[in-house]
């Protein structure tokens, strides 16, 4: 191992991620979004010898981070010489067979998601998140940003490929375990992991959709059996967005956008961004690093609405962890961009100062940033 590689690895493994107090500002929902990672790096597998977050912090510790290639058993990134994967088969759109009109809101939401202008949780109903996604997509195509699905917008969206496709449940989809998760943070800390509570929740996350929508698309289907064929949103093959020149968090319309070097927005996600008690920290910051599947170190003193009977606790990782499946650390101490256990509430509920996305959009954003990427948080 060269000196430079060793130095880079040490810096990555020891980077401290300050956690944030970012739970729901509604006291009854306070446990849904607490505070983040204590360490993160740039994006590969964290070695077992890496230091763990001290229990007196309030942040999650990452389980993955990208580290430089090493002869000592560490994960090596792909090189240009890597053999390319064979092309995926072209997806067959089954919208018509499923009784879904080509100009339906459901098709629009799926195609917006595929274009990296996320409507949040796909539900077939539309709403404020969908209107924001339509307007953002229109601006990216130099169309009038009406937020309405006019003919020119449909023409641009229809280039995005199939909307609904068939999918057969796998053994992994139905294996679980699916267990109920208590609301209380102290009770959560006693669990080994915060996984999905049902196969419906797991499939909703996989296909960026509300469980209710999936049931409507697949009436009377047995979701407990591998091999069951479903109709689902075509979102599992979406390519990662290009590396961002800047991340922009906009409080005025509750969005997080990725921009290129010319300042053009090429991806936009709905977000929850602070509250009256815990406002968004306006200013120019930078991305420190990314923690995937983080544990969460809960410190009630950071929450104005915390239960006074609570003590510090380590909350295990999982999609129902208070910060979801990914934490993108900001240079503003105690703040980050992260996932959520409640995708239906994104941009419809407040946070404790952090920027909250769905788990799938947080993971997309994490792929587009690197340590040092500028992050502008604006009114």
Would you kindly provide a written description of the structure presented here, covering whatever features stand out?
The chain is an alpha+beta fold and 379 residues long. The protein has a domain at 29-44 and 239-378: L,D-transpeptidase catalytic domain-like (Beta Barrel), CATH 2.40.440.10. The chain contains nine helices and 13 strands. It has helices at residues 3-14, 105-114, 128-140, 151-157, 171-175, 185-188, 199-206, 211-217, 359-368, and strands spanning 164-168, 229-233, 246-250, 255-259, 265-270, 272-273, 283-292, 296-298, 313-315, 326-330, 336-338, 355-356, 374-378. Strands 5-4-3-13-7-10-11-12-6 form a nine-stranded mixed β-sheet, with helices on both faces. It has a two-stranded antiparallel ribbon with strand order 1-2. It is globular and about 55 Å long.
CATH superfamily of the domain at 29-44 and 239-378: L,D-transpeptidase catalytic domain-like
- CATH structural architecture of the domain at 29-44 and 239-378: Beta Barrel
CATH-defined topology of the domain at 29-44 and 239-378: L,D-transpeptidase catalytic domain-like
Strand order of the largest sheet: 5-4-3-13-7-10-11-12-6
Shape: globular
* CATH class label of the domain at 29-44 and 239-378: Mainly Beta
Order of helices and strands: HHHHEHHHHEEEEEEEEEEEHE
Q: Pairing-aware structural class of the strands and helices?
A: alpha+beta
| Number of extended strands | 13
DSSP summary: helix tally: 9
The helix content, as a percent range, equals 10-25%
Terminal-residue CA separation: 46 Å
Most strands sheet: 9 strands, mixed
Instruction: Give the overall pLDDT as a whole number.
Output: 80
Radius of gyration: 21 Å
How big a fraction of the residues is strand?
A: 15-25%
Given as residue ranges, the uncertain stretches (5+ residues, pLDDT < 50) are 1-21, 23-88
């Amino acid at each position: 191992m060269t000196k430079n590689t060793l130095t880079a690895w040490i810096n990555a493994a020891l980077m401290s991620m300050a956690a944030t107090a970012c739970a729901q500002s509604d006291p009854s929902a306070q446990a849904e979004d607490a505070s983040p990672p204590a360490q993160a790096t740039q994006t590969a597998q964290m070695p077992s010898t890496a230091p763990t977050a001290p229990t007196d912090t309030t942040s999650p510790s990452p389980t993955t981070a990208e580290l430089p290639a090493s002869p000592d058993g560490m994960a090596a990134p792909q090189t240009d010489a890597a053999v390319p994967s064979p092309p995926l088969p072209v997806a067959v759109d089954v919208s018509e067979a499923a009784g879904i009109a080509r100009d339906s809101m459901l098709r629009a939401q799926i195609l917006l998601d595929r274009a990296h202008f996320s409507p949040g949780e796909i539900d077939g109903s539309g709403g404020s998140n969908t209107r924001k996604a339509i307007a953002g997509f229109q601006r990216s195509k130099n169309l009038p940003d009406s937020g309405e699905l006019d003919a020119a917008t449909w023409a641009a969206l229809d280039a995005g490929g199939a909307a609904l496709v068939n999918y057969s449940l796998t053994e992994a989809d139905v294996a679980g375990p699916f267990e109920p998760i208590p609301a209380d943070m102290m009770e959560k800390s006693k669990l080994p992991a915060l996984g999905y509570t049902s196969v419906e929740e797991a499939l909703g996350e996989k296909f960026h959709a509300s469980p209710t929508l999936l049931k409507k698309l697949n009436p009377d289907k047995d979701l407990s059996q591998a091999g069951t064929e479903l109709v689902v949103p075509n979102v599992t093959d979406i390519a990662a967005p290009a590396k961002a020149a800047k991340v922009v968090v906009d409080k005025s319309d509750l969005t997080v956008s990725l921009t290129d070097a010319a300042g053009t927005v090429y991806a936009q996600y709905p977000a929850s961004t602070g509250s009256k008690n815990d406002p968004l920290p306006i200013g120019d910051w930078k991305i420190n690093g990314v923690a995937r599947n983080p544990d969460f170190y809960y410190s009630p003193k950071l929450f104005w609405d915390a239960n006074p009977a609570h003590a510090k606790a380590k909350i295990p990782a999982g999609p129902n962890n208070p910060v979801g499946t990914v934490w993108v650390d900001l240079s503003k101490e105690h703040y980050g961009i992260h996932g959520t256990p409640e995708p239906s509430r994104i941009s419809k509920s407040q946070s404790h100062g952090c920027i909250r996305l769905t788990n799938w959009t947080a993971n997309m954003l994490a792929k587009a940033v690197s340590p040092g990427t500028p992050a502008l948080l604006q009114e």
